[in-house]
Amino acid sequence: MISALEGGGFATVLAIVLAVLGAGCFAGAAVLQHGAVNAESRPATDDRPGKAVSMSGLRAITRRPGWLAGLALAAGGSVLHATALVLAPLSVVQPLGVLAVPIAVLLTAVRTDRRPAPGVLVGVLLSVAGVAVFVGATAGTAVSSPPPDQATLVASLVVAGVVLVLAGVGFARSGWVRCVACAMAGAVAFGLVSALVRAVSQSVVAGDVGPLELPVLAAVAGIATAVLVGGWLVQQAFASGPPEVVIACLTVVDPIVAVLLGAVLLGEGVATPAETWLLLAGAAITATAGVVALARHHPDAAAARAARNGPGAAAGPLPAPQTPQPAAAPRPADPVHRR
User: Fold this and answer.
1) Model confidence at 317, in pLDDT bands (50, 70, 90)?
2) How many CB atoms lie within 10 A of CB 155?
3) What does 3-58 look like in DSSP terms, one character per residue?
């Protein structure tokens, strides 16, 4: 990491600072928007797991002050993040977003006046450690170049297929599974956004294409579509799980997708040796395990499981109902007394 900073100079340092500030904005936006979505999709008298948010419900959510404040924070974080992507490679900027996970946990703890559970802390540590390995393993070998022809189209189609599969899994399930699947689908879409932003900026800076030419306009249209689809999926995730889980999925899956797209689309991984890719695979598995632990052990998930099992679930199984015994048949009269 230090060698990358020395080689990249002031631009890389500035990019890292902007990415960290953006992570703080994304954490605050997640906490605020989760509160608004959860209040709209699940009334206070309903303790069942969150349901899918309808379009009318989504319109009602977008009028809530908390959601709008979260949107403003998310927009500010996006500007900071996009600026960082122009200044430094994807593999350096994207993984820093994982700092939003501990920030979101801290904000939720302060807001609810409730200490994080041990399982939540373990999940946070695994997620941060896994993504931190991405930074250390790729920062020293990342290079940048304009994308080859048709690469952005192929990458967009592949990402669209992955998003559809994850979204299908999410809407087929409920509870924390839906939350994780929808959040991951949104994260994959946002990973494409980061890759396209970086690809367009590299092409324009290199002079290969003008800012108003068709390839750039097509990329901008793809960015807008991915932002809308990803944002809608994230709102569905907020309706089914806590903000820490959603932001963990975003900050873990997004950099993994972005690094892979950067390696394939922008050629950032051409100098990465095979052993480094193995290390990246292990880091991805570790970070994913952290997300699962965070999702399963979060107090909201535990409360949802208790609600599904019913109020008597914690008290142990109920005794088996007694099967009524059939009435005894009348004994036949003693034949000796039959006269």
Assistant:
1) very low
2) 23
3) HHHHHHHHHHHHHHHHHHHHHHHHHHHHHHHHHHHHHHHS-TT--SPP-PPPHHHH
Residues 218/224, Cβ–Cβ less than 8 Å: no
Residue 293 lies in a domain: yes
Query: Please, how many CA atoms are within 13 Å of residue 3, restricted to the half-sphere of its CB?
Result: 7
Least confident range of 53-62, 118-127, 165-174, 249-258: 53-62
Report if residue 174 sits inside a domain: yes
Residue 185 has pLDDT above 90, yes or no: yes
**Within a domain: residue 298?**
yes
pLDDT tens track for 35-70: 777 766 554 444 444 456 666 777 777 778 888 888
Residue 199, pLDDT score: 76
- The pLDDT assigned to 164 comes to 94
**Long-range Cβ contacts of 13-16 (<8 Å, 24+ apart):** 14/84, 14/87, 15/83, 15/84, 15/85, 15/87, 15/88, 15/92, 15/93, 16/84, 16/88, 16/92, 16/93, 16/96
Which pLDDT band holds residue 143 (cuts at 50, 70, 90)? low
Chain position carrying tokens 């599969």 = 165
Total of domains in the chain: 1
How far separated are the first and last CA of the chain, in Å rounded? Answer: 110
Rounding to the nearest 10 degrees, give the CA dihedral for residues 20, 79, 184, 223. Answer: -150
DSSP string, 208-237: SS-TTSHHHHHHHHHHHHHHHHHHHHHHHH
> Residue 88 and residue 155: Cα distance in Å, rounded?
21
- Structural domain harbouring 42: 8-306
- Please count the other Cβ atoms lying within 10 Å of the Cβ belonging to residue 118: 9
Backbone torsions φ then ψ of 333, nearest 5 degrees: -65, 150
Residue 319 lies in a domain: no
